[in-house]
Amino acid sequence: MEAVKIGMSFWDNYNIDSRVAILIQARTTSQRLPKKVLLPLSLEDQTQTVIEWIYERLKKTLLSNIYFVIPEEDRDLIDFLEKKSLPFFCGPLEDVRRRYILAAEYLKVEIIVRATADNPFVEPSLVLPTIRELIEENLDLFSFVGLPIGVSVEAFTLQSLKKGEEELNDPLYKEHVSLHIKKNPHLFRFNHKEYKEFINYINKKNINVLPRLTLDEKEDYQVFKNVYKKLKKDFSIFNVMELYLREPEIFLGNMHVQQRKF
Q: Are 244 and 251 within 8 A, CB to CB?
């Protein structure tokens, strides 16, 4: 997978690299699949874990500020990230939103791209278009929709997180970083758009059901290993979809898993 090509006029005009951080939410205490982010990519490839691979994929964006945001009590993850020399910030276990605020303030950035360590199929080429939409539409939050679960990212402003921290302090809003924005359209400006290139592709291929590409259950991990065995490291969402068309059976194992919605 080549580094994502960035429109330099947009990059330079908005000083993107100094204004933006990709913050990857991570923990090892998942109840459904404990320590899933530390699982190896495959039985054949034990040299790299899911969390390292996600970081490697997001580095293709060429953005300088890419950090994990993790609970301060997660000793297993702290030890692992320190051993691997991967950048991270610690924050309150029960208040993920505060973790993001603290990290963004430390980095002195205005815009946050939120990724999660349970999405090994995250698509780096979506990051810059997501930032572009946020800035050019003057929004508090933006994300692309219509993609398989586990592929997209979302971007929001630090200001919108800090505003919601005082006025909207429901525990659910603390756990789900940007939920307070989406649930309060009278206070925030947000938008979601279909990613036209992908929508055109699935319409052309007559694809009606999308694969599940996130990592919550052991069945998800098996699908991930199946895909990795076929495509290795350097692939895009379009490569995954071509594999889905050729060998749909390897994606069937997790199609029954229900995604939690808030």
A: yes
